[in-house]
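Dear Dr. L.,

I hope this message finds you well. Following up on our conversation about the binding site, I have prepared a predicted three-dimensional model of the protein together with D-glutamic acid. For your records, I am including the exact sequence and ligand specification that went into the calculation, followed by the structure tokens. Please feel free to forward this to your student if that is useful.
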Amino acid sequence: MSIGIFDSGVGGLTVLRAISEKFPQANIIYLGDTARFPYGTKTTATVQRFAIDNTQFLIDQGAQTVVVACNTATATALSTLRQKFSIPIIGVIDGAVQEALQLSKTGRIGVIATNRTIKLKSYQKALLQKRQSVEVFAYPCPLLVAAIEDGRLPDPLLQSIVAHYLQPFKEQQIDTLILGCTHFPLVRAQIEAYLGPGVTVIDPAQSCMRDLPHPPPSQEADYRFFVSDDADRFKKVGRLFLGRNLQKFLHSVQCRG
Ligand code: DGL
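The resulting structure of the complex is given below.
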């Protein structure tokens, strides 16, 4: 059995990494839809179309479970995918919402994500549906996605982008922050340093594991990587997202054409 994972680009590699740490013997097929990146600025109908196409591709490659390793695609397309395909389809929002509600003591929860995820109020609705008493403060951070994707920005610049977006949370006195975009775990250290120890940071890449059916172990895990454009750039930036033990699999990234 193989787990298929897709994202608009390299961000979903944070989810792949978390899955491979929990299930080191799982076979994984990853698709980075780099030709159509970013999803966060596109309309719902467009992202839904991309998500259906990506899921079908992963199934054709042999995936028996698909993880939508992109908050924007989860927000826009998860229910459509579940209606259309009969295999288990896992998103990244539900697990993070559950974890935030478990860990927040004050019920003041922050969310940072792409424009589309924030506009759809996916996190806000899911949190309030489960607990009406929470207060949710949600902001889009588009520049942060671009800065991380760039892969070369010096730390002080990243830190000032983080401070620019996270500054309202200081006044709002949140005690929990959901990283509602698969890129953001890469700047988790800067985010934690800015917000201080009083704020618990939730990474949906970790929380989505709650919903993932346990894959049967194979002899030796097989990783296959596909992109829709520019395999070389994916390899270069992808290295930042993956630990050394997984970087070797990036050598054979295939362009799906
Ligand atoms: N991976 C996307 C997400 O988690 C962010 C990048 C994009 O806009 O496509 O929402």
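In brief: Residues 35 and 229 are 5 Å apart (CA to CA).

With kind regards,
A. P.
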